[in-house]
């Protein structure tokens, strides 16, 4: 059995289901702008199409892959997927952070998106590099750019949520971004441990991981994001999906957030005579 094709077909099916779900969800936007549903729908469509190129009959480039050197296979279809979808995921996260802002901070948004393009482009160049020193140089460049993206979503973008009147938005953003960060950190780890780096596991395991993690970082993230936004403000009764999102995030309340400000960590002060 060709396990790589099986993982890819399952991934394509997951993307198709995700896209159909977001189309259905967008039919009743419940206060969430329709363009957010469009982006959430486009992401799995594009990703599914990119992965489809890896399962259709063909040779080499026709199958979204390229033998760069010494039988090292570069799945450039993945990079074609990531260079489009990962900036769009950052766009979706930015819209969530600025949910109640009438004017978005497009300078910050585009800075994050373009930095993410550097992350993906560096990964592709590294994967195509036959000289180990060159490969790790580009990997380090991409990792530095990735750290900058993480800094951006946990600092200036996170600060945007504190400027709005919605008290639940900062909490929701922190939980959503924790999930976002946990899934995105997996990408450089899988890359460096797999066939492109230290070769601690083979291409079959690599394909499985690069199907599993993107499903969570794309479809599951958008599911949590949209349903969470729909539940903010209690515009109407919560649906089962929104209650599930609330339950999913509930356990994260006990996880300490390392980026919490010192002001939040200070113990409350009491005036003389007040109850403690």
Describe this structure in words.
The chain is mostly helical and 276 residues long. 68% of the residues lie in helices and 3% in strands. It has helices at residues 3-26, 34-52, 76-97, 106-128, 132-154, 156-161, 168-193, 203-231, 240-250, 262-265; strands spanning 66-69, 72-74. The chain has a two-stranded antiparallel ribbon.
Outline:
The protein has ten helices and two strands, in the order ααββαααααααα.
Tell me the number of helical segments per DSSP (H or I, 4 or more residues long).
10
Q: Average pLDDT across residues?
A: 85
Largest sheet: 2 strands, antiparallel
Low-confidence spans: pLDDT under 50, at least 5 residues? 233-238, 251-255, 257-276
The portion of residues forming beta strands comes to: under 5%
> Could you say which structural class the secondary elements and strand pairing correspond to?
mainly alpha
Stated plainly, the CATH topology is called Rhopdopsin 7-helix transmembrane proteins
Radius of gyration (CA) equals: 21 Å
CATH homology group:
Rhodopsin 7-helix transmembrane proteins
Adjacency order of strands in the biggest sheet: 1-2
Secondary-structure element series: HHEEHHHHHHHH
- Overall morphology: globular
User: Using DSSP, what is the number of strands?
Assistant: 2
| Assembly classification | single chain
State the CATH architecture: Up-down Bundle
Query: How many distinct domains?
Result: 1
What share of the residues lie within helices? 55-70%
Labels describing this entry:
disordered C terminus, Rhopdopsin 7-helix transmembrane proteins, 276 residues, two-stranded antiparallel sheet, mainly alpha, 68% helix, 10 helices, globular, 3% strand
